[in-house]
Amino acid sequence: MRPLHLPGLATGRCLVMGVVNVTPDSFSDGGQWLSPDRAIAHGLDMIAQGASIVDVGGESTRPGAARIDRDEELRRVIPVVEGLAAAGALVSVDTMWAETARAALGAGAAIINDVSGGRADPHMLPLAGEAGKPFVIMHWRAHSATMQNHTDYTDVVADVVAELEQQIAQALAAGVAEHQIIVDPGLGFSKTGEQNWELLAALPRFEDLGFPLLVAASRKAFLGALLADGETPRPPELRDAATAAISVLAADRGAWCVRVHDVASTADALAVSRRFHQVQPSEQEPS
């Protein structure tokens, strides 16, 4: 796997990225962190609970969500990025707008997390190449308003890998360096619940691309469906134990980082998993 240049990050273990949604309409926690002061405090709490990175986003990308304009995204995101970075947090900015990414980098962000992988804004890939910062390329087919109309695959794993390879090639051609790239299979984006499970089972195929792998399954609808009470899906805020389980499984299959809403439960689960794997089975046969 190509190494990322991110000073201060621990190596040799799966990292945790905490989600700070500065939005009124995110599926899980929309409206809770609209105040910059509250969002900054929330991000710092996540660092204290074990997050290595906090991911700040001002636009909901839940299925069916409408887009917001750049000025509104800038208004929501930049004060939070600035406050977290000033407090010493390693910040990624979750945006599809190059203008927001540029402003966030200027405010102290260290990573660009673009769910479109550079496809939504033609200026994003050149900006990422110029900036030289780590850049998340997620598998993406369409914006949130219509993305669930694009779930047809011949073989979901092979097709997503191939489409990610195309996105990576486009990024490299635009000047993004290999050492900047992080890949994300895009769970829930133009994917059915069953397709999400197939992708999770095949995570080593994505690790084989040779780039750090980000897995973002936190509180998503396919977990709610799995844990449903009859016909009623488990509410998003009650999916954190399932998210922690996915985090451990993803780490065991090569994930570089997991993106979650509840840091404490995932950080604890990953700590248990690491300790478990450190134990060497006794070679002595039981008497």
Q: How do the strands and helices of this protein lay out in sequence?
A:
Elements: E1 15-21, H1 36-49, E2 53-57, H2 70-86, E3 91-94, H3 98-106, E4 111-114, H4 124-131, E5 135-138, H5 156-173, E6 181-184, H6 193-201, H7 203-207, E7 214-215, H8 221-226, H9 240-252, E8 257-260, H10 263-278
Parallel strand pairs: 1-2, 1-8, 2-3, 3-4, 4-5, 5-6, 7-8
Describe it:
The protein has a single domain (15-273), classed as Alpha-Beta Barrel (TIM Barrel), CATH 3.20.20. 40% of the residues lie in helices and 12% in strands. It is built from ten helices and eight strands. It has an eight-stranded parallel beta sheet with strand order 6-5-4-3-2-1-8-7. Strand 2 (53-57), helix 2 (70-86) and strand 3 (91-94) form a beta-alpha-beta unit. The mean pLDDT is 91.
Q: Give me the CATH fold name.
A: TIM Barrel
| Tally of helical segments | 10
**Overall 3D geometry?**
globular
Number of domains: 1
CATH architectural label: Alpha-Beta Barrel
Q: In angstroms, what is the radius of gyration? A: 18 Å
Question: Spans with pLDDT under 50 lasting ≥5 residues?
Answer: none
How would you characterize the largest beta sheet?
8 strands, parallel
**CATH class category name:** Alpha Beta
CATH superfamily: Dihydropteroate synthase-like
Q: Mean pLDDT score, rounded? A: 91
Write down how many β-strands occur, each being a DSSP E stretch of 2 or more residues. Answer: 8
Termini separation comes to 43 Å
Task: State the gist of this model.
With 287 residues, the protein is of the alpha/beta class.
